[in-house]
Amino acid sequence: xxxxxxxxxxxxxxxxxxxxxxxxxxxxxxxxxxxxxxxxxxxxxxxxxxxxxxxxxxxxxxxxxxxxxxxxxxxxxxxxxxxxxxxxxxxxxxxxxxxxxxxxxxxxxxxxxxxxxxxxxxxxxxxxxxxxxxxxxxxxxxxxxxxxxxxxxxxxxxxxxxxxxxxxxxxxxxxxxxxxxxxxxxxxxxxxxx
Length: 194
Description:
This protein has 194 residues and is of the alpha+beta class. It has a domain of 106 residues: CBS-domain. It contains nine helices and five strands; from the N terminus they run αααββααααβαββα. It is elongated, with a radius of gyration of 23 Å.
C-alpha cells in the first residue's frame, strides 16, 4: 500500500516539465515519409512533432500514420477497375495496358509522399506546469502515446511519451538506471525530484 501511495504522490507532485524529453527529433511538413521513417528508426522513437520553418509545432506524425499510408493516385488517371474500361468493350488489350502503365507512373509511392499529407493536425499538448497525473489522464482519454509539451508562450519545449513516463517512474523507485530510456539510450530526461 505504501508503494501505491508513493507512486500516486509522485504522479501528483511531478510536472510535465520534469518528465519532458527536451531533445526532440522533429520532422517538417515537406519531408518525405521515407525521411521521417529513417529518423524514427535512427532515433528509436515511434513518432514526433511536425514543425514549420519557425519551429512552431503544426502537427504530429507517428509510426502508425506511416503504416496506414497508401499510394496516391493522380486524379486525372482513370483507374483500371473503373467503368471506363468496362464500358469500352472494343478497347484493345494494348491500349488497356498502356493506360495501366500510365496510372502506375502517375501514382506517388508511399515513401515519396510528404509528411504534410499524413500528419495529425489536432496536436495533443500540455503546459509545462501540468501535473503528470493529468498528462496521463489526457493520454488515456484520447488514446495517444505522446503529448507535446508547450511553455507559457505556446512554444514547443519537448515531448512526453508513455515510455518516458514509465522509465521515469522506474528510475524514481530505483528499478531502472539513471539517464537511460527503455531502449538503453540517453533520450529520456526523466523527472527532477519533486
